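To start, an entry.
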Amino acid sequence: MKVTINIDCTPEEARSFMGLPDVTAVNEAMIKKMTDQVAEMTPDKAMAMWGDQMSKMTDYWTNKSSSNKG
């Protein structure tokens, strides 16, 4: 037997029904912080931030592919 129940409610109503906390204020603060950071981002800042990680990823994949050859 298969039973399907469809509930039409908003995300807020679903969280309340399931007893989850209201995180609206935290979510809004995080969105504002992320938006501010993106607004301040320049190509130079992005490359400085990602450059080190990109070189680490390149080294990882280079070493991984060379270790699979043997």
About this structure: DSSP finds three helices and no strands in the chain.
